[in-house]
Amino acid sequence: MASTLYSLLFLLSTLTLLHQPPLSAANLHSTAALFRSQPFSEPTSLPTADIPPTTFFEVTKPIPLPKTKPCSYLVLEHDFAYTYGKSPVLADYKPPTDCPSQNFARIVLEWTAACKGRQFDRIFGVWLGGVEILRSCTAEPRATGIVWTVKKDITRYYSLLMSNQTLAVYLGNLVDSTYTGVYHVNVSIHFYPADRSYGHSAVEYGELDNGYGFGSVADLILPISRTLPLNDGLWFEIENSTDVESKEFLIPQNVYRAVLEVYVSFHENDEFWFGNYPNEYISANNLTGVPGNGPFREVVVSLDGLVVGAVWPFTVIYTGGVNPLLWRPITAIGSFDLPSYDIEITPLLSKILDGKSHKLAFSVTNALNVWYIDANLHLWLDKGSDRTQGNLLEYSDSPLSLSLLSNFTGLDGLFITNILNQVIHFNGTVDAKTPSSSILSTNSLKKFTLDFYSDSIDKGNGTYDSVANVTLGIDATRQKTSKFGTSTSRLKNLQNGQGNMLVKGNLVVSGLGSTQQEYHYISDKSCYFRNICFLLTKLKTCDFLDALKIFD
Ligand SMILES: *[C@@H]1O[C@H](CO)[C@@H](O)[C@H](O)[C@H]1NC(C)=O
Ligand SMILES: *[C@@H]1O[C@H](CO)[C@@H](O)[C@H](O)[C@H]1NC(C)=O
Ligand SMILES: *[C@@H]1O[C@H](CO)[C@@H](O)[C@H](O)[C@H]1NC(C)=O
Ligand SMILES: *[C@@H]1O[C@H](CO)[C@@H](O)[C@H](O)[C@H]1NC(C)=O
Ligand SMILES: *[C@@H]1O[C@H](CO)[C@@H](O)[C@H](O)[C@H]1NC(C)=O
Ligand SMILES: *[C@@H]1O[C@H](CO)[C@@H](O)[C@H](O)[C@H]1NC(C)=O
Ligand SMILES: *[C@@H]1O[C@H](CO)[C@@H](O)[C@H](O)[C@H]1NC(C)=O
Ligand SMILES: *[C@@H]1O[C@H](CO)[C@@H](O)[C@H](O)[C@H]1NC(C)=O
């Protein structure tokens, strides 16, 4: 099958940084700590027995399901105590061969966890046969206990799920007398057989996001991750701006489409890369221990040395970030199910269909320690032939042109004020056509916004008081035209949080947080709307509106 593909990517990032930080080294330490994830410390003397655990959740639309009874099973049950630097926890995965139907419309991964005590937010990954299927962040526990559930539609990994695999979970947790939280985790998979009310299988009907129509999920998925055994996650770790991590792979010779799905998360000095100071500012003020390299990052993916795509990641704030009270119980957008990013690499197939091994590599512009990155190569195979052929018609890659305008005055005063506005816009287009007709055309417009305001005051002895207001938003429109017609969807998801807190050392000792979120999703098939608020101390919701409608 011949395909011609043009892709267009555009990035615009505007950013304003205003700093009036203070004089002493102690204060500067707080500046760095201000953004960092930190756990909330509650008195452990409280009578906790009759207080029910708090349920945390991320606002998102429900997964559309057929009305069939799922075949479900618990793949893994594990208590993550001192797991940092240890090998991932492994379990045998087998497809549900005893399920009466073997034609599934949806397959859903369910992560349920409970924790009690005090603990940092921990990043974790779930891999099946080395293919990452979930990147997520734990919720921070309370003395009275917490529970949360993440449900993810994993139907796009259908082909992988139909054979025996090893499931691996890495969640690097540390437990000591201060950080006492042990994460108790269950991982289950639900297989929903196709039925008439829902139509037939999502796979046959091309209802999934990726699809050329015939066989809308990949026939084969190759892991572009580190191989077991290891004492860490299967992700690659990118430590600086020159670090390149890569993996060799070999594909069958009858591939007609290839999409690389990239998973990304950022940590330590780059956990708040979008708020990192320009290096000139750091040196002008003799700051130490403050992460720099400015507020722009771009994940670059290359194939045999040729750039095939870039990712401008959404500014996910983990559950302990800025002020943990902002994300309790409504967690920040993307924190429980970090987005993955698809790069269409079909135009370059002709370079890798030679039966030889090739190399995919990842790097991050301006990176500081550390980024966790890996990818899945989704491949569609031509069942009617042993070999497909192709040609790259045109390739162009313009180098990154980045401009950073910094305007700051020297350090003064006792207050630390941070104001940050970041907008990432990007539009992506994929067109696949034969000489006579169009096969697939997708158009995606995305806008990520982050507004951040904080004030903090040093109280001496490693103690500080801070107030912070945060606005996080996604506005994404997607249009797809295939032989099934045209479908359009739009997601507008906006979150506002206001909080204050008193921090001693690494621990938040008191404070309050409020969160408001408006989630609007509309497509040709369904719409979902939710407007939810969490106000101050009470675990209650206000102005609650929750509606799902499936159009007939
Ligand atoms: C995990 O599953 C077991 C067995 O069904 C159950 O007893 C336990 O409470 C579950 N744990 C969580 C965190 O849901
Ligand atoms: C998959 O695993 C099951 C149970 O462990 C085993 O009975 C079966 O033979 C395996 N299937 C294949 C194809 O290896
Ligand atoms: C960047 O990280 C790589 C991998 O750890 C290391 O080998 C290299 O020396 C680092 N480069 C700089 C400039 O620090
Ligand atoms: C930074 O250090 C240099 C050399 O020690 C000194 O001359 C300068 O005044 C310092 N700047 C600030 C803002 O403290
Ligand atoms: C820098 O900011 C100050 C105060 O906001 C303003 O007066 C000045 O014009 C700005 N300078 C530049 C070069 O933008
Ligand atoms: C993306 O497309 C929309 C609609 O066509 C347009 O308004 C916007 O300016 C584009 N943005 C970029 C960054 O190209
Ligand atoms: C800081 O701690 C020391 C020793 O614990 C104590 O003597 C001092 O009063 C404290 N200062 C403040 C401002 O709390
Ligand atoms: C922060 O939020 C509070 C509460 O909504 C509001 O009163 C305050 O004006 C906000 N501050 C800034 C700088 O946006």
From TrEMBL:
The keyword Signal applies. Keywords: Signal. Residues 68-396 form the Peptide N-acetyl-beta-D-glucosaminyl asparaginase amidase A N-terminal domain. It comes from the Eukaryota. Residues 1-25 form the signal peptide. This is Peptide-N4-(N-acetyl-beta-glucosaminyl)asparagine amidase A.
